[in-house]
């Protein structure tokens, strides 16, 4: 472990502002709004704020307010936050982000989960290929291997808890399949989607309806995953060179079920939205993060993924602006001991509703602990 501090040279920020100020705007169809992708009207307003009001140095200080480290694991540089809980016997918990977010997804719940008697030792890493970790893109199962070594060999925990959604969900599921002996419990906000490889006749009516919804959603909203799973390098040239292109791509898939006017609320606010985009820009990891989709797609279709359901207790939360899968779908993958459908919130609940999300994590993990005592 080596201490780490975010410290971006000023010329990087100057170059960014020059690119923002000298952008060539493509124009958009009359009255098209968000129907063709990210609204140019909205994006111009955000870029104006980015240039004139957003303070990177302030947010850099906020990123550095919690202890951060790097470690080389199997030749891959892993960046992670490590914040010890203040209770008498805090539970170790690793939180895994997704795409198009970053480890920053969890910054609001850090103080909520490290204070009080029911507290946690929080480990919040950047997935390889994202943020301040190395730019080596690997599959979700490979990330699970790295996380197991991070928690047991680098940090010295015999057993730990894990939580994640989106790509983080795939990592947590892989942990339960490959390393159940080191897990106390896991928590998920989704469990994956039908791929077409399932036997439709074995599915319940609710699962079939879910599969049909996902098929429709795939063709209407999933352009990013199709491109990133097939031609991530082609995409990377434009997004790594243009901050406005990068912002448009990320924003197009950030509202995740929310109306366009809710995009900032869904991600926690304008500054949170821009700080997340900045992490991709300053580290130049949009290309390597997209390549992870290619790695996961190759693992899925090659049949090499491990799909072994274990007895690790799992809690599942379904937020209303997420795909509404039934409990029996979740039970195909994990040992569901708690399944709850929430009344508000979406894909980035840790940013949008941090108190609610933190309360749910604490309640679940400590209930499992108490039941096993």
UniProtKB/TrEMBL annotation:
UniProt keyword list: Aromatic hydrocarbons catabolism, Hydrolase
GO BP field: epoxide metabolic process
Gene Ontology molecular function: epoxide hydrolase activity
Keyword Hydrolase belongs to the record: yes
Domain called Epoxide hydrolase N-terminal: residue spans: 1-106
Pfam families: EHN
Active-site residues annotated for this sequence: 166, 293, 347
Homology family: Belongs to the peptidase S33 family.
Protein name: Pimeloyl-ACP methyl ester carboxylesterase
Lineage: Bacteria, Pseudomonadati, Bacteroidota, Flavobacteriia, Flavobacteriales
């Amino acid at each position: 472990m080596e201490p780490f501090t975010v410290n971006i040279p000023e010329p990087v920020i100057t170059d960014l502002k020059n690119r923002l100020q000298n952008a060539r705007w493509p124009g958009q169809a009359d009255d098209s709004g968000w129907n063709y992708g990210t609204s140019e009207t909205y994006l111009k307003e955000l870029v104006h704020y980015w240039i004139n009001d957003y303070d990177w140095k302030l947010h850099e200080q906020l990123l550095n307010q919690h202890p951060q480290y790097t470690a080389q694991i199997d030749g891959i540089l892993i960046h992670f936050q490590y914040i010890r809980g203040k209770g008498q016997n805090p539970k170790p918990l690793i939180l895994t982000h997704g795409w198009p977010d970053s480890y920053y997804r969890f910054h609001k719940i850090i103080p909520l989960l490290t204070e009080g008697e029911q507290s946690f030792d929080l480990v919040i890493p950047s997935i390889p290929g994202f943020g301040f970790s190395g730019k080596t893109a690997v599959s979700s199962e490979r990330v699970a291997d790295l996380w197991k070594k991070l928690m047991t060999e680098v940090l010295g925990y015999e057993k730990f808890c894990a939580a994640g959604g989106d790509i983080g969900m795939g990592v947590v599921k892989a942990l339960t399949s490959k390393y159940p002996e080191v897990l106390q419990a896991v928590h998920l906000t989704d469990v994956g989607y039908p791929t077409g490889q399932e036997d439709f006749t074995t599915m319940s009516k609710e699962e079939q309806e879910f599969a049909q919804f996902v098929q429709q959603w795939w063709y209407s909203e999933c352009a990013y995953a199709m491109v990133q799973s097939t031609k991530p390098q082609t995409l990377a040239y434009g997004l790594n060179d243009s901050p406005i292109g990068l912002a448009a791509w990320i924003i197009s898939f950030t509202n995740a079920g929310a109306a366009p006017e809710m995009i900032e609320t869904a991600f926690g606010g304008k500054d949170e939205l821009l700080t997340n985009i900045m992490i991709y820009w300053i580290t130049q990891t949009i290309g390597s993060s997209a390549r992870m989709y290619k790695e996961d797609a190759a693992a899925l279709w090659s049949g090499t993924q491990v799909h072994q359901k274990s007895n690790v207790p799992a809690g599942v939360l379904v937020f209303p602006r997420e795909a509404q899968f039934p409990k029996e779908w979740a039970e195909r993958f994990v040992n569901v001991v708690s399944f709850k459908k929430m009344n508000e919130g979406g894909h980035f609940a840790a940013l949008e509703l941090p108190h609610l999300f933190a309360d749910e994590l604490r309640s679940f993990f400590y209930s499992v602990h108490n039941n096993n005592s």
